[in-house]
């Protein structure tokens, strides 16, 4: 990992909620709002953005844990901002506080933990599972 990744650094990402981001099960849409699964996916993405500039050749980030609470709805058409702030860097471990909000509410918050590891180690672990 390159030098410089430190607590306090932040990244953000914005989206507009679309129909394909709504919760659906067995082909039936449940609500016309951002699904929890989609919210978590964007939270992971914005956390990943915090490490991208610090990956060295032969390294990759890998998810370790996600802990999130979904607090409020984001209807279709609503613009949502996602944020990640690095809270801890300990060896290969990078912890981020994440949150998402729109103009009326904070819609979710939590933590994403990633590890920066050699690609060869990640690939060997994947191969061991086949």
- pLDDT < 50 stretches: none
Number of distinct helices:
2
Structural class computed from helices and strand pairing: alpha+beta
Biggest sheet layout: 5 strands, antiparallel
SSE pattern, N- to C-terminal: EEEHEEEEH
User: Rg to the nearest angstrom?
Assistant: 16 Å
Could you name the CATH topology? Thiol Ester Dehydrase, Chain A
> What is the number of beta strands?
7
CATH C-level category:
Alpha Beta
What would CATH call the homologous superfamily?
Hotdog Thioesterase
This entry's quaternary arrangement is single chain
Q: Strand-residue fraction?
A: 35-45%
N-C termini distance: 28 Å
Q: Estimate the global geometry from the Cα principal axes.
A: globular
Mean pLDDT: 97
Task: Walk me through the topology.
Layout: E1 10-16, E2 24-25, E3 28-29, H1 36-52, E4 59-70, E5 79-90, E6 93-101, E7 106-118, H2 119-128
What do you see in this structure?
By secondary structure, the chain is α+β, with helices and mostly antiparallel strands. The chain has one domain (9-128): Hotdog Thioesterase (Thiol Ester Dehydrase, Chain A, Roll). The chain is 21% helix and 44% strand. The protein is built from 2 helices and 7 strands. It has helices at residues 36-52, 119-128; strands at residues 10-16, 24-25, 28-29, 59-70, 79-90, 93-101, 106-118. Strands 1-5-6-7-4 form a 5-stranded antiparallel β-sheet. Strands 2-3 form a two-stranded antiparallel ribbon. Strand 6 and strand 7 form a beta hairpin. The longest helix has 17 residues, at 36-52. The chain starts with 9 loop residues before the first strand and ends with a helix.
């Amino acid at each position: 990992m390159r030098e410089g990744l430190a607590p306090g650094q932040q990244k953000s990402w914005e989206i507009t909620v679309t129909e394909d981001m709504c919760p659906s099960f067995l082909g039936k849409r449940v609500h016309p709002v951002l699904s929890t699964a989609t919210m978590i996916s964007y939270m992971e993405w914005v956390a990943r953005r915090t490490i991208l500039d610090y990956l060295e050749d032969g390294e990759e980030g890998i998810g370790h844990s996600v802990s999130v609470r979904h607090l409020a709805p984001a209807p279709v058409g609503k613009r949502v901002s996602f944020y990640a702030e690095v809270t801890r860097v300990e060896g290969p471990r990078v912890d981020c506080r994440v949150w998402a909000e729109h103009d009326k509410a904070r819609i979710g918050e939590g933590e994403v933990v990633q590890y920066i590891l050699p690609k060869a180690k990640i690939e060997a672990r994947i191969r061991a599972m086949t």
